[in-house]
Design goal:
12 strands, 412 residues, 56% helix, Heat Shock Protein 90, 5-stranded parallel sheet, alpha/beta, 10 helices, Rossmann fold, 5-stranded mixed sheet
């Protein structure tokens, strides 16, 4: 029985050792649009089944060489999808029931005086076979689509992970570029101070070696040395602080280490690393965090969360705003810490607010936005810190994020 759709009429095989019955069945079936082939016994019937694979079989039970019950068992084993109807005499009704148990679809009792009963049984069996075939085809297609969907989901996850990693590396790249630019200034001043001190030393040494140096020259030289040393030391300390802050932030963002840190000091370090981006604007950042609040957690997660929130404000919230304000507050409440982040930027529509944490959602697609920054924040809060994050916003009224992290997951 073919699984493919065909315009040919259904092919029916009649197996009966009585030629008259076979011919009667053939006439009524062909008159109703079916194609019919015949076999006079079970063995011949099986040969024709294997050769023609009919759509339906009408089979007698009592036949020479091979009876109908053997045919049913063989068809059930080799051709499960082909419906087989038993046509038996009243005297072998028990055998007919046994045949149904062995795999026959139905049975009719001979003699059949009303051939409409035969046609109804045939039509019913063919409809049932068609329905089974359609269900199997649907199931196969569903399984195929399920596998395809799973593959697409896995591919999307891989792509998302790659993009998230790329975004993290891009953030580190921006950090490196900004800190490198900031370091150039104090280093340049330090170099200038040392050069000035070197020149002053050369001049004084020359005057001293010729005996022309006076007390005034010595006093001026010492003043120049003190000033040059102070300027150089101050700027080198600033450069060292930049490098130390950058090193810690970079290590935390690129690793997954858990450690104890002071959250106020760490937020200051994060903002210090972002200073090159903030100083180009007139925006201000206010921080209200307890001085002694220490956590045993993942500072890299906090760094990425805060960095993304600040950059989101700079790129989106303060678009078209000359002097915006960011406020960061952290407080301990019961067994949780609550970090509140607020900006007074242009805010969001309700539609954008609903999608703020969706992967790949961005209003800056044409400007290079990947739409993964806030999705990364959501994942870090919910999965890494086992916390919760919520967002409220309104157009022209700023944006407010609340991050709640249970203390029991981060305290020693």
């Amino acid at each position: 029985m073919s699984d493919t759709v065909s315009n040919n009429p259904p092919l029916i095989l009649t197996i009966d050792d009585e030629k008259v019955i076979r011919n009667n069945f053939k006439d009524i079936l062909e008159d109703n649009g079916y194609e019919v082939i015949q076999a006079e016994n079970g063995r011949t019937g099986l040969e024709k089944i294997r050769k023609h694979k009919p759509d339906l079989i009408l089979c007698d039970l009592q036949m020479p060489e091979m009876n109908g019950l053997e045919v049913v068992r063989t068809v059930k084993k080799e051709f499960q999808k082909i419906p087989i109807l038993i046509v038996s005499g009243a005297g072998v009704l028990d055998d007919a029931i046994e045949a149904v148990r062995a795999g026959a679809w139905d049975y009719l009792v001979k003699p059949i005086f009303n051939l409409d009963i035969l046609l109804q049984a045939v039509e019913k069996a063919l409809d049932r076979a068609k329905l089974i075939a359609e269900n199997e085809a649907y199931q196969k297609n569903l399984e195929k689509q399920t596998v395809k969907l799973q593959q697409e989901i896995e591919e999307r996850k891989r792509t998302e992970q790659q993009l998230v990693q790329s975004e993290k590396m891009a953030a580190l790249g921006d950090l490196v570029a900004g800190v490198a630019h900031e370091i150039n200034t104090p280093l340049g001043i330090g170099v200038t101070g040392i050069s000035y001190l070197n020149d002053a030393t050369t001049v004084f040494k020359k005057r001293f070696s010729t005996g022309d140096a006076t007390k005034t020259d010595l006093e001026k030289f010492l003043e120049d040395c003190e000033e040059a040393c102070q300027v150089t030391l101050s700027n080198l300390n600033r450069a060292a602080k930049l490098v130390a802050g950058f090193k810690q932030i970079a290590v935390d963002q690129s690793s997954d280490e858990k450690r104890i840190f002071n959250i106020k000091q760490y937020i200051d370090e994060i903002l210090f690393s972002l200073y090159p981006r903030i100083k180009k604007t007139r925006h201000t950042v206010n921080v209200d965090v307890p001085e002694d609040l220490k956590l045993n957690s993942y500072p890299g997660a906090f760094s990425q969360i805060l960095t993304n929130l600040v950059m989101n404000s700079l790129l989106h919230g303060f678009e078209g705003i000359e002097a915006g304000q960011i406020t960061i507050t952290v407080k301990k409440e019961n067994h949780s810490i609550i970090l509140c982040y607020e900006d007074n930027g242009k805010g969001m529509t309700k539609e954008h607010q609903k999608r703020i944490f969706d992967p790949f959602f961005t209003t800056k697609r044409g400007a290079g936005g990947t739409g993964l920054g806030m999705h990364l924040v959501f994942n870090l809060v919910s999965k890494k810190l086992n916390g919760q994050i919520s967002c409220t916003s309104a157009v022209n009224k700023g944006t407010f994020f609340t991050i709640t992290v249970p203390m029991r997951n981060i305290e020693k």
